[in-house]
Design brief:
The complex is a heterodimer.
Chain A lengths: L5 H28 L6 H28 L3 H17 L15 H4 E3 L14 E3 L3 H7 L9 H14 L1
Antiparallel strand pairs in A: 1-2
Helix pairs in contact in A: 1-2, 2-3, 2-5
Chain B lengths: L11 H12 L12 H15 L20 H14 L4 E5 L7 H18 L2 E5 L5 H4 L5 E5 L2 E6 L1 H11 L9 H8 L20 H10 L1 H19 L2 H13 L14 H18 L1 H21 L10 H18 L3 H7 L1 H9 L4 H10 L2
Parallel strand pairs in B: 1-2
Antiparallel strand pairs in B: 3-4
The chains are: A mainly alpha, B mainly alpha.
């Protein structure tokens, strides 16, 4: 009746009306309760990033559910991958403390040298970690990260 | 097909609508002036009436855990779903398992109707079928350790085995008798006969069948059919043309699907959306949970200071808020497992080129 590939795509599309409203409500509550920067740009950047992270990670978990036939294997293996993504998102483990041989999970650093005391300089480039894309952003693509935006805005509003 | 694997939270009508939306013919295969939607609705209602389950149209299909239609009705939903595929050769493996006698009879009658109406070939294997079911079939095949020991009209099967020297017991149904003949512990020989002068090993039974008139008739029928097929290419051409005409826009000529990939995604999206919309408990609980969690996070990080003092907490908040949603989506692994069986079944319902070839050999 249909190809296997049609199923995950359809599943994501059918879920969007529900997840979009759900995450929107969730974001509004958090954003305005914690008094993050109250501008349109700030809020929509935050919402877009959180929702994209949600969609990507949802697809990530669904992929394990589709690859493996039993729940036990799917769950355990997904957790192995998920823990690495989580730790190497650049928040729990700071960049300087990351193992060099695990950088491919999160990033490599461009421009070695220049500054003799710091071996690696910003901006990092991200490989396979959706969480890192969301929380830190990619300097080379000129996409400002959520964190950068908020630190920047905080500085501005403080100065005014 | 042995089990009824359906999505339990869809209604009977929706289940058939989905099947039809992936299998309804393109404009070449419909009467002029009949739209795709009209066609699907007509065929769906026809199928429901034919199998006598019109009253269940808006009842959930259900399963062991979800309350839905009864077991016999669910079997008929399976037949109806299979009928929408318009497959020309179908096989049913022990599909009456767990049905009571009258429902099993209804089920086989449904198969009989489908075979007659659509002019198709149906293979059925059954255990413990009554006389009513047995008489509905055109041909019966008896196998013993993989050897064919009888293949012919059901009405002559009993006489054939009695002639071989097996005794039929009083009040024993024909099928039980036939099965009994292959079982050394169950079969009984006619008075005055023993395993010495009755073929009683699978090999001997096969030899006996090959020497019988049934086998000769079978072989001559087969030869006649093959000769006819070689001379008359018309049927094959017509069949190929019909399959081509059925294809909807976007489906490649060589593709085993009636529907193109985009169409498949559309049909599936509609079904998945219906499924989610009907699961009211899941919708309400997920919204409430999200609001609850958002309030909790909001209270923990209430009104962060706009100075450098709020810097580190702010970073944590920005990391944690998407993370909670990510943890929530981990439940998707389980959801994927739930619909697995239905997907495996439906993915396999396609016309393979090799299957078409075999089918041409079997049509009689």
């Amino acid at each position: 009746m249909y190809r296997r590939a049609a199923y995950p795509i359809a599943n994501m599309l059918a879920d969007i009306p529900f997840s979009a409203t759900r995450i929107f409500i969730y974001n509004i509550i958090i954003y305005f309760m914690t008094r993050l920067d109250r501008t349109g740009g700030g809020f929509w950047t935050y919402h877009l990033t959180v929702y994209l992270i949600f969609l990507v990670m949802q697809a990530f978990f669904r992929a394990f559910g589709l690859i493996f036939r039993d729940f036990d294997t799917a769950f355990r293996i997904s957790v192995v991958f998920f823990m690495h993504i989580l730790q190497y998102a650049g928040v729990w483990v700071p960049f300087a403390a990351m193992k060099r041989w695990l950088f491919w999970i999160v990033s490599y650093f461009v421009g070695v040298g220049g500054n003799s005391s710091v071996a690696y300089t910003f901006p990092p480039q991200y490989y396979i970690n959706p969480l890192a894309y969301g929380t830190r952003g990619d300097g080379s693509l000129q996409i400002c990260s959520m964190l950068k935006i908020f630190f920047f805005r905080m500085g501005c509003s403080n100065g005014q | 097909m042995e089990d009824d694997t359906h999505i339990p939270t869809l209604t009977v009508g929706q289940t058939l609508d989905f099947a039809l939306s992936t299998k309804a013919p393109g404009s070449g295969g419909r009467l002029p002036g009949v739209s795709k939607e009209d066609f699907s609705v007509q065929v769906r209602d026809l199928l429901l009436r034919m199998l006598n389950i019109s009253h269940t149209k808006s009842t959930l299909v259900g399963d062991e855990f979800v309350r839905g239609v009864s077991g016999g009705e669910r079997k008929r939903v399976s037949i109806a779903e299979m009928m929408t595929t318009r497959a020309r050769v179908q096989s049913w493996d022990n599909s009456t398992r767990g049905l009571d006698a009258s429902t099993a009879l209804d089920f086989v009658k449904g198969l009989r109707i489908m075979t007659d109406v659509l002019g198709q070939t149906t293979f059925v294997s059954l255990y413990q079928a009554g006389e009513g079911i047995y008489n509905l079939f055109d041909k019966v095949m008896v196998l013993d350790h993989g050897r064919q020991i009888y293949f012919g009209p059901p009405s002559e099967a009993r006489a054939y085995f009695e002639d071989l020297g097996f005794r039929s017991l009083p009040r024993q149904s024909t099928l039980d008798y036939l099965v009994g003949c292959t079982n050394p512990h169950e079969r009984q020989f006619a008075p005055g006969r023993s395993s010495l002068d009755v073929p009683s090993t699978p090999e001997a039974l096969e030899m006996a069948f090959r020497a019988s008139t049934h086998y000769k008739t079978l072989m001559s029928d087969l030869a006649a059919y093959e000769k006819e097929q070689e001379e008359e290419k018309k049927d094959q051409e017509a069949f190929r043309a019909a399959v081509m005409e059925d294809k909807r826009k976007g489906a490649a000529k060589k593709s085993p699907y009636t529907l193109g990939f985009v169409g498949q995604v559309k049909a599936l999206t509609v079904r998945q959306f219906q499924m989610r919309l009907q699961d009211r408990f899941q919708i309400v609980s997920s919204y409430l949970l999200n609001i609850w969690v958002a309030l909790a996070i909001g209270i923990v990080y209430l009104n962060l200071p706009l100075t450098g003092a709020g810097g580190y907490t702010r970073a944590t908040l920005l990391f944690i808020s998407p993370l909670v949603m990510v943890f929530d989506s981990q439940g998707e692994i389980g959801l994927m497992m739930v619909s697995r069986g239905t997907m495996d079944k439906q993915v396999n319902w396609r016309a393979n080129p090799s299957e078409i070839a075999t089918e041409l050999m079997c049509i009689r």
